[in-house]
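FORM 12-B: Structure-to-Sequence Request
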C-alpha cells in the first residue's frame, strides 16, 4: 500500500492522522513549503481524496488525487492533452504524475462539484435543475465535437498503455477482483463472505447464481460476465480512439454557477488520454445515473424495498430503486447528445466494432462491481450489497423477455444504426 492509499483510507476514520501524513508527503515528495492541509472526506471519494493546502506565505490551494491499488500505469494526469483538445479543464499549478505519487494541486475554486449540486437537487433543492440541465447539455454537445475532432485509429500497443484501462481490465485482472470477491473464474480458492438480507453467503456461491430482476431474466452468472469482460476489455486492441477524460463522473466536474450561462469545468484527469470513446462514456453513464446507492448507502437503504425469492440456482429479485428526474436528465443528455452520435460517427468512419454493445456493457459491468467492494460490511448495509450485485448483472448481461431500461436504450441505438 502506498502512502496515498493509506491516506485515502485513513481520512474517514482518523482525519487528523491522515492530514499529518499528507503534510509530510507534500513536504518531502513534492518539496512544497506547506504548513497545513485540510482533507475533505466526501461520499464521492471512494478511491480518492481532496482538500486544501496552505503554504508558508498564506497561499491556499486545492488538491486532489486518485489512488489505485495494483496499478500498472506508469504515469497519470494528461491535463495538458485535454486542454489542447478543447476541454474546459482546470489546469494544475503543481503536479506529481508518477504512479504511487500522483497528486495535483490547483488554484482554489469556490464552486460546488456537479455531484454535490445533483445530490442537493435529488434531496429536494430543485432551484438549480434548469441551469444544471442547460450546462450539462452544452457540455455534452462540446464533448461530441471533441470526439469528432480527435477521432483516429489506434494501434494495439498504444491502446494498451492508455491509463483508462486501470478503471476496467486492470481492476479485473490486476488483483482488485480477487481481493474483493475471490479468485478469477476457473482458479481454485474460496472467495470471501458477503452479508445479504437473508444472511451470509460465500462469493463463490453468489458468482454462480442466475438472476431475474424486476421481471427481466438474465442467464449470465457473475463468473460468466467476469470471463467475458476479461476478453472484451483486453487493453491491447486496435480500434478507434478519441482524447477523453476517462473518469468524467460528476465528482470530477465543477458547476460554475456564476458563468453566463452556467457551465461545467473538468478536473482530476487521472485517466485522461487517447482511448476508445465507449470506455470514455462508461463511467459517467453509470455513476452519474445509477450509482447513488454507492455513495449514500444508508440513505438509499432506508428508502429501499427489496425482496428475494430463490428457485434452484436462480434468484428472483424485486426492488423499487428508481431514478429521480436529475438522474434521468444526465442519462438522456449523455445518450442523445454523445452516445448515439458517437456510434453513428464510428460507423460512418468504418470504426464501429460489431460487438460494440457487449463491449460497452462489459465496461459498465465493472462500475458497480469494482469501484468499491460490495462485500465490505463497513460500507454497505446488506440490502445495498444485493442491490449492487443486481446492478452489476443488469449492466453486464442481456435481459431476456422484457428488456431492462438499459437494454431498451441500446436496442434503440441499434435500430438507429441500421
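FORM 12-B RESPONSE
SEQUENCE OUT:
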Amino acid at each position: 500500500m502506498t502512502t496515498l492509499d493509506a491516506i485515502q483510507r485513513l481520512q474517514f476514520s482518523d482525519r487528523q492522522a491522515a492530514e499529518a501524513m499528507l503534510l509530510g508527503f507534500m513536504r518531502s515528495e513534492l518539496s512544497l513549503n506547506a504548513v497545513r492541509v485540510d482533507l475533505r472526506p466526501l461520499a464521492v471519494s471512494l478511491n480518492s481524496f481532496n482538500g486544501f493546502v496552505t503554504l508558508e506565505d498564506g497561499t491556499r490551494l486545492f488538491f486532489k488525487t486518485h489512488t489505485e491499488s495494483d496499478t500498472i500505469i506508469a504515469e497519470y494526469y494528461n491535463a495538458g492533452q485535454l486542454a489542447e483538445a478543447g476541454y474546459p479543464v482546470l489546469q494544475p499549478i503543481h503536479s506529481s504524475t508518477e504512479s504511487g505519487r500522483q497528486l495535483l494541486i490547483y488554484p482554489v475554486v469556490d464552486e460546488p462539484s456537479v455531484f454535490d449540486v445533483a445530490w442537493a437537487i435529488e434531496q429536494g433543492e430543485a432551484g438549480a435543475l434548469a441551469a444544471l440541465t442547460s450546462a450539462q447539455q452544452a457540455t455534452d454537445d462540446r464533448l461530441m465535437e471533441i470526439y469528432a475532432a480527435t477521432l483516429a485509429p489506434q494501434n494495439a500497443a498504444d491502446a494498451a498503455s492508455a491509463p483508462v484501462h486501470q478503471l476496467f481490465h486492470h481492476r479485473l485482472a490486476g488483483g482488485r477482483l480477487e481481493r474483493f470477491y475471490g479468485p478469477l473464474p476457473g482458479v481454485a480458492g474460496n472467495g470471501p463472505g458477503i452479508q445479504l438480507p437473508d444472511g451470509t453467503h460465500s462469493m463463490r456461491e453468489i458468482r454462480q447464481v442466475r438472476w431475474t430482476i424486476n421481471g427481466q431474466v438474465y442467464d449470465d452468472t457473475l463468473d460468466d460476465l467476469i470471463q467475458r469482460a476479461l476478453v472484451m476489455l483486453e487493453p491491447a486492441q486496435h480500434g478507434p480512439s478519441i482524447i477523453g477524460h476517462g473518469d468524467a463522473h460528476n465528482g470530477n466536474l465543477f458547476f460554475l454557477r456564476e458563468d453566463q450561462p452556467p457551465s461545467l469545468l473538468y478536473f482530476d484527469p487521472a485517466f485522461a488520454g487517447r482511448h476508445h470513446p465507449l470506455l470514455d462514456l462508461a463511467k459517467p453513464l453509470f455513476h452519474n445515473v445509477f450509482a447513488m446507492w454507492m455513495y449514500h448507502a444508508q440513505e438509499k437503504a432506508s428508502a429501499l424495498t427489496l425482496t428475494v425469492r430463490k428457485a434452484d440456482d436462480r434468484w428472483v429479485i424485486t426492488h423499487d430503486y428508481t431514478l429521480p428526474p436529475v438522474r434521468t436528465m444526465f442519462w438522456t443528455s449523455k445518450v442523445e447528445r454523445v452516445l448515439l452520435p458517437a456510434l453513428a460517427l464510428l460507423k460512418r468512419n468504418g470504426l464501429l466494432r460489431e460487438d460494440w454493445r457487449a463491449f460497452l456493457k462489459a465496461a459498465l459491468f465493472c462500475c458497480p462491481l469494482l469501484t468499491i467492494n460490495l462485500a465490505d460490511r463497513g460500507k454497505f448495509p446488506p440490502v445495498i450489497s444485493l442491490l449492487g450485485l443486481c446492478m452489476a448483472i443488469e449492466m453486464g448481461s442481456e435481459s431476456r423477455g422484457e428488456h431492462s431500461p438499459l437494454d431498451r436504450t441500446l436496442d434503440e441505438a441499434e435500430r438507429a444504426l441500421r
